[in-house]
Model the fold of this input.
Amino acid sequence: MERRFPPRCNLFCAKLMFDSGHNPLAACVHPRSKMRHAKFLLLIPAVLAISVSARTTYVGASGGIATLSADAGSRGTAQGLSLSSYAPANGGALNVFAGVHLHNYFSVQVNYIWNENDLILNSSSSSTGAFYQESRSSSQNSGIFDFLIYFRRRSSRVRPYLGTGVGVVHLASTREKLIASSGAPSLSPLTFTSTGLVFRSHVGIDLRLARKLDFRYSFSEMIGQNEISKHLAPPAPRGLENFQNLFGFIVRF
Done:
């Protein structure tokens, strides 16, 4: 059987390398190494193009019902007991959002969320006999950054997801009517506002309606400081929870 040997440098190549003080074997290998590096560099733009094309941006809007948590406070003294509470009514909610599908299972999203709810505040003191009841309006405006995890691939027609995020919420409340009062009760301010951090968690599902159109349902909870409870007399201890059932549509680009 004929024995094959690896290709060698020709004498001219070897002479040039020796004359210049270089290793002739390295001279033979070097062009091949450069070719491999060149091929690798050519692959980088292709990989980047694939990763960019795999991302999909979207915008959407949804509306529904917002429900606030209630709260109550109490304070006992030697002269008697003071009680306070507030009861919220269901109100409207709106969520306008935009996001990017980074992967089959991961997305990021920015949100503007608005909701408005009516309130009834109550306070009474057995020691003084003073009490009051008033109606108030309240609204919240939030900006939130979310991270979403999907449980099915982007090509699926039905895609449930879990999301969580953090942001800033601004609450404003105004007295509408003093329903009843007696004695000299400690009324809440005519208007009060607050701005603070809010944490949001939500679950939902995206349903494919057309090539670039989805229907979305979501249930979310936002937790933050409770400026309403702080203005009760006596103050109440709980934070404010904002529950929202939202229905809307997504347009993908």
About this structure: Residues 11-20, 24-29, 46-52 have pLDDT under 50 and may be disordered.
